[in-house]
């Protein structure tokens, strides 16, 4: 059975525009990095919403019930410290099956978005390769 992962946009709990923009960029980079690793096993949350709404033609809606995991998380920023947390959620039981956090001493930038997403993707890939979650 094919494993499908849906990325839910990372959350940023403050109203700060720069922090929200940074977090959105980390989500975009994370989707890109995960796609490079897992290809068509990735389904974006936006595409998932469009499929459910019937806005994407020629989609096998039976595939929606096949989502195995959701990847969710958050970004917190305090001055020059950026903390990112991610969790892999079992789509059927809604249980957290894996979680990881990263703390960086850095200012918000495109390079830091890319580095953060690469670190997150590497952690997910390592978890999957250890056989804790089977990727077909």
Question: Would you write up a description of this structure?
Answer:
- The protein is an alpha/beta fold and 136 residues long.
- The chain is 38% helix and 29% strand.
- The longest helix is centred in the N-terminal third of the chain and has 22 residues, at 17-38.
Structural class: alpha/beta
Number of helices: 3
Tell me the total number of β-strands.
5
Order of helices and strands: EHEHEEEH
Q: Reading side by side through the largest sheet, how are the strands ordered?
A: 2-1-3-4-5
How large, in whole angstroms, is the Cα Rg?
Answer: 15 Å
Mean pLDDT: 83
What share of residues is helical? 25-40%
Beta percentage is 25-35%
Q: What overall geometry do the principal axes of the alpha carbons give?
A: globular
Query: Uncertain segments of ≥5 residues (pLDDT<50)?
Result: none
First-residue to last-residue Cα separation: 7 Å
| Biggest sheet character | 5 strands, mixed
Write the layout of secondary structure elements.
Layout: E1 4-7, H1 17-38, E2 42-44, H2 45-53, E3 67-78, E4 81-90, E5 96-105, H3 110-129
Parallel strand pairs: 1-2, 1-3
Antiparallel strand pairs: 3-4, 4-5
Short description:
By secondary structure, the chain is of the alpha/beta class.
């Amino acid at each position: 059975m094919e494993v499908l992962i849906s990325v839910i946009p990372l959350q940023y709990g403050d109203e700060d525009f720069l922090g929200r923009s940074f977090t959105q960029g980390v989500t975009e980079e994370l989707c890109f990095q995960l796609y490079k690793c897992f290809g068509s096993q990735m389904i974006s949350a936006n595409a998932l919403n469009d499929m459910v709404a019937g806005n994407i033609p020629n989609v096998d809606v039976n595939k929606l019930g096949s989502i195995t995991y959701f990847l969710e998380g958050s970004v917190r920023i305090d001055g020059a410290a950026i903390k990112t947390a991610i969790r892999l959620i079992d789509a059927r039981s809604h249980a957290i099956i894996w979680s990881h956090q990263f703390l960086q001493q850095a200012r918000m930038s495109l390079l830091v978005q890319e580095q953060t997403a690469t670190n997150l993707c590497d952690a997910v890939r390592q978890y999957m390769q250890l056989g804790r979650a089977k990727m077909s």
